[in-house]
Amino acid sequence: MEREKVIVIDFGGQYNQLVARRVRECNVYCEIYSYRTPLDEIKAMKPAGIILTGGPNSVYAEGAAGCKRDLFEMGIPVLGLCYGAQLMMHVLGGKVEKAAAREYGKTPTKFDTSSELFKGIPEESVVWMSHFDYISAIAPGFTAIAHTDNCPVAAAEDRDAGLYLLQFHPEVLHTEYGKEILYNFVRGICGCAGDWRMDSFVETQIKAIREKVGSGKVLCALSGGVDSSVAAVLLSKAIGKQLTCVFVDHGLLRKNEGDEVESVFGPDGPYELNFIRVNAADRYYEKLAGVSEPEKKRKIIGEEFIRVFEEEAKKIGAVDYLVQGTIYPDVVESGLGGESAVIKSHHNVGGLPDHVDFKEIIEPLRDLFKDEVRKAGLELGIPEYLVFRQPFPGPGLGIRIIGDVTADKVRIVQDADAIYREEVDKAVEIWREKHSEPDSKELPPWMPDQYFAALTNMRSVGVMGDERTYDYAIALRAVKTIDFMTAECAQLPYKLLMAATSRIINEVRGVNRVMYDLTSKPPGTIEFE
Ligand code: XMP
User: Fold this and answer.
1) How distant is the alpha carbon of residue 390 from its chain centre?
2) Whole-model pTM?
3) For 405-417, how does the pLDDT look when each residue is reduced to its tens digit (9 = 90+)?
4) Of 8, 139, 337, 507, which is most buried by a Cβ count within 10 Å?
C-alpha cells in the first residue's frame, strides 16, 4: 500500500524543515523536495497535497526560483506560503509589488472563517509576517480570505481549484493558530487520514527489514547516541543475532558512558544481538599526543574510528548490509544547493569506511526527524535516559579539551562534567519540589538543551589550604537552543553554579578555578573546538 503523503516544495526558505515537521505533527507523512524537481516526478509520487515554502527572493529577482503553471493544474490541492504564495499569484495572473516598508513580526490579522482553511479558528488573531513584496491583486478565480492593516491579501483561495495561499508563516509558533491552519489544509482540504504514527512506523520497518535482509548478516557502528541506538534496537528486534554492533570506545566518552552503553546493548542487556566493544582509548591517546590544532584533532579522531571499525569488520568477514543512523535532516541538507533535482541520500554522514565488505547500506531512520526518532525509541522500549540524551559530538571530549589531549586531562574533564550533571539533576529536583506536581517530568525554564564541562588549557595560580596551586580552569557551558544553529547561554541558578564550582574544585584533582561561559552562538560555537 502506498504511504499517504504531502510534498513540501522548497524555495530556499529558512523554515522549510519546520513546515515538514508541522505537517508530520498532524500525523501526515511529508517529504521536502527542491523546487528544481521535475513536475513529473512530483506527480508520480501521488501526493495528497503540495505546500510551497517561503524563500529569500522576490519573484522579480534575476534567477528567482520559479514553478510552472502546470503545478496548479494537476488537481492536487496546493498551499503557498509567503514566497510560495506570491509565486502562485505571479504565475496565475495576480500581481506582486514592492511595498514601501517590510512587514515583519507579529501582526494582528482578520480571517474569513467560512474558508475551510480557517475552520474553527477565531476571526482575529496574531500571525508571523516576514516579507518585502506583497500581493496587490489576486489572480482570477481567487478570493481574499484574510487581511492585516498593511496587507490586503494575507490569505486567498480558489476553492474550486483547491488552491490556497498564506502571506504569513503558519509553521512558526508565533502564528497563534498556525497548527490549526496546517491541520485544516492537510487533514481537511487534502483529505489525509493521518496514519503516520510511530507505533505503525516501527511495525512496518521491522517487517520491511526482515523482508529485505532475509537470512543476511548486518553490521552496525553503535555510538550510544540516540540515532545509532534506535537504529540498532530496530534492527535487533527485526533480525536478532544476524546483527552485529561494533561500539568503539575511543576513551573520549563521558564518565561511565562506555559501561552504560555496554549494559544496554551488551550480553546482559535486554536485546538480542552480537555486541562488540573495542576499548581503543590508548590508541587514540597515542595518536592525539602533542596535537593541539582543533581540525587536526577532529581528523585524527575520525580517521582512527574508521581504522578501528575496519579492523573489527575484517574479523567478522563479509556482511550483507551496513546500518547507518542517517536521519531526515541529513538527507534534506545533503540535497540542497546541488544541481541534482531529487534529494539524494547522505551516505557518508558518519564518515563510514570504504574498505568494509558489504553489499548495501540500510538507513532505517532516514525518513524521520529527531523528535520522531525519539518517539520511535520510546515505542521500542529504549530507556528514557538514552532516548532523551543530549547531543554529544562524535569527537567526544576530544573537542572539549582545548589543546592537546592526555589521559589525565580526560579524567579531569570527565569528573568535572559528571559533577556538573549531578548538580543540574539536583537543582531540577529542587525546582520540581517547589514548582510542580509530585512525579511530574516538568523542566525548569532555565533548563539547558545542552550543557557540559570543558577543560580550558589555562593554568592559573590559586591557594588551597596554605599551599600555592598552579592548576587548570574548567569552563562550564549551558545553552538554550532550538536547532543548535543558534544558541543562547542558559541562565542557570547561581546556587547550582556555586555548588558545581565548589564540588569540582574540591573533588577533581588538578582543577583550581571554574568559569561559566556566557557567550551566545553566534559569535561563539556551542563546543569549544
Ligand atoms: P557547535 O560547536 O558547532 O555545535 O556550535 C553545534 C552542535 O553540534 C554538535 N557537534 C557535533 N556533533 N560531530 C557531531 O556529531 C561533531 O563533530 C560535532 N561538533 C559539534 C555540538 O555538540 C552541538 O550540539
Assistant:
1) 12
2) 0.85
3) 999 999 999 999 9
4) 8
